[in-house]
Amino acid sequence: MTAQEWFRNGTWDAAIESHFFEKLRRARRKSQYLRIQASYLAKTNPAVALSLLEKYFALGEDFDLAQAYLNQAEAHLALGDKRSAIACFHKALKREKEFPRLKTNAWEEYVLLVAIDREKSLYHHALAVLADHKPDATSFPVNVFSWFAAFALICDELSDRAKAKEAACKALEWSEAKHSGFRYHPQVGLVGAEYDSLKTKLQRLCESARTADRDSPTTPSIFDNGVWP
After folding, report:
1. Domain tally for the chain?
2. What is the pLDDT of residue 219?
3. Counting CB atoms within 10 angstroms of each CB, which of 4, 70, 148, 204 has the fewest?
4. Is residue 179 part of a domain?
5. Which pLDDT does position 220 carry in this prediction?
6. How far apart are CA 43 and CA 206, in angstroms?
7. pLDDT category, 3, cuts 50, 70, 90?
8. Quick check: is 116 in a domain?
9. Residue-range definition of the domain harbouring residue 22
């Protein structure tokens, strides 16, 4: 490990902890190093990540506050505390609205959590979040996939079969992308194997929706409010 990597540990033990805090003691931007180190441990060592983030918040840092809330949400999810995670996602999204120049992936992780775990009371809030984060030319394939995947699952739950079908099929199309669309980072942001179970759900939804459409009358979509990109 080089001197510049002391705050990017992927594991944690007594020796690493001692070294980290010794380096931190002499560092000028303590809050930044605490937040970055917490991000590396949020999913693998969430208790340590939350402890580091407590120290981050205590310093009163506000530059990357939205990212800190996102890392906090990820740590809570790793511990199985979904309620606390959702509260942190909401804080991250609120912070981004207040300071829109600094963006995170909080929207993506939040809407997928709501859609996959069927958090019914949050469906309309998730739709509002999707409306605020429509895919554009700067989006990686995985971001577009996540957008349409979450939208498809929520539409299905709210009985908008036409939108569910269209979004599911679009998500699956984006999951097959082999190039990011960015010249210098062609393999960054593609849909990986970790989404296989979600793709299976979308495939079933897409295929069953085609059958249902042939047998069901066309009805106005409840999402004709600008959410659909």
Report:
1. 2
2. 31
3. 4
4. yes
5. 34
6. 31
7. low
8. no
9. 1-104
